Amino acid sequence: MRDLWLFLLLPLSLANFHGVKGCLECDPKFIQDIKSLLEKLVPSEVPGRTQLLEWQVKEMVNISFMVSHRNKMLRVLAVQKAIYLRTWLKNELYKVGNKTWKGVFILQGNLLDIRQNLESRLQEILKDFSEVACSEDCVMTEGPVLDCWSCHRISTQCFKGEYCGEEDPRQPENQEIALFLILIAEVVILGSALLLFHICVTHRRKMKAARRSLETYLDVKLEKLMEITDEKEKEDSGIEK
Fold it and tell me: Can you give the pTM of this predicted structure?
């Protein structure tokens, strides 16, 4: 039943996630800053520079999205922590830029190390923050909190329920209602299709019957016309004699 539910609502799930972000991308300038820093790392004469930069920017930005969406408990983070991570990442890229250019492969290796380090740091910070924010004796003093999925700032600093990975007690009931509505919709669609099929078949039969009636009528009329023609020809022949 659960697999069926997930299958039926997969398009809705994808639609809901369309446009969602990660913790670091909530800063409108983040992607552009990373792009600018990476552009400074690759000399203009390097073959395939544009494609290389596009791929590196995508990989760097996707880390934040992937980490924060692995688990609902990794959804919230203190704003100051997000700022810290963005600053750390920029500093790491500055360090690479200050090194002597040794080729594309060396650069890719350095950027891979940065991405792996960023993923590890981000996951650890998100996990630590969630454990504190979701604890029963939560006491938060780190300022505003960021919802990494919607980029909204939340005044609440202690959480429970969905943000802490807890199931909504109404969720099973809502799932059953949604499944029932889906089944009703499928029955209505199937019923409409059968009704349309019945109408088409009935119409086709009526058309066949009407065509047969028309053919019979035309045959009778044609026979009468032939008889009238024959009688007229006989009359004309008698007059000539």
Answer: 0.56
Q: Which two tokens stand for residue 50?
A: 């544009």
Q: What angle do CA 42, 47, 48 make, to 5 degrees?
A: 85
Question: In the numeric block, which tokens belong to residue 156?
Answer: 């609440």
The per-residue DSSP string of 39-103 comes to HHHS-TTSTTHHHHHHHHHHHHHHHHHHHHTS-GGGSEEEHHHHHHHHHHHHHHHHHHHTSPP--
Q: Are 130 and 74 in contact (CB under 8 A)?
A: yes
Task: For residue 77, give the amino acid letter.
Answer: L
The residues, ordered by sequence, that sit 6+ positions from 169 with a Cβ below 8 Å of its Cβ are: none
Q: How far apart are CA 112 and CA 106, in angstroms?
A: 10
Q: Has residue 159 got a pLDDT over 90? A: no
Return the pLDDT at 17: 35
**Of 86, 61, 84, the residue nearest 143 (C-alpha):** 84
